[in-house]
Amino acid sequence: ASILLFRACFMLLAMPIYLLSFLGIWEPFCKKIFFPFILEKIAAVYNRKTKRQKQELFRNLPEFTSPSGELKLLEIGTGCGSNFQFYPPGCKVTCTDIDLHFQKGLSQSMSQNQHLHYERFLVAAGEDLSQVPSGSVDAVVCTLVLCSVRDINSTLKEVLRVLRPGGAFYFLEHVAADHSSWNYFWQQILYPTWKLVFAGCCLTREIWKNLEQANFSELKLQHISVPLPWMPNKSHIIGYAVK
């Protein structure tokens, strides 16, 4: 009852956004202006908070270089390219996103990270990577994206399809907090308003369960807490899985 009461209070505070959504105005404004702007700001802070974890996560990327000597990497939901700085020199990157409105930030990240080879940019959702041939990439990266895809299991099936045997899937995602924690209490309260404001981002997904049930031959997964003061998405999972 308390969760429903507080949830209603937050929905009341966000009533102008709900009204704009009802009128069909909020979604295009969010995708074109608000979300790209706020994501670029958040990405800078987030990279500072997770720099050590990301450096450690991507440290072994060169181990998945193909026998040809190339490391072909596909990133799902590239956004403004906040992960580029952590990829090894010479890596061939294919960027994908459902939104073209990140192009300004993405172009800036590309110019700042010229140690990489950028092959192409695809407008594609994680659930449909049909433009990418099966078994054609050595690594797939997905950070802070599985919280907002329409279907996690379909996305993971596509990841497995495009990876070559022995390739790896790298992830860093915020997830549902421990159900007995105050953080989870607030996640449940904020869930509908947060999802509306932040372009479909879900606070309470237990993504580690989807990864455990996917057909990876090896899964290295760790639960961590990212120090994000006053934010409901501190609980994260990080790691990689091998096809």
UniProtKB/TrEMBL annotation:
Alphabetical list of Pfam families matching this protein: Methyltransf_11 (PF08241)
GO molecular-function terms, A-Z: S-adenosylmethionine-dependent methyltransferase activity
Domain (Methyltransferase type): residue spans on this chain: 74-171
Keyword Membrane: yes
Gene3D superfamilies: Vaccinia Virus protein VP39
Membrane-spanning parts: 5-26
Protein name stated in the entry: Methyltransferase-like 7A
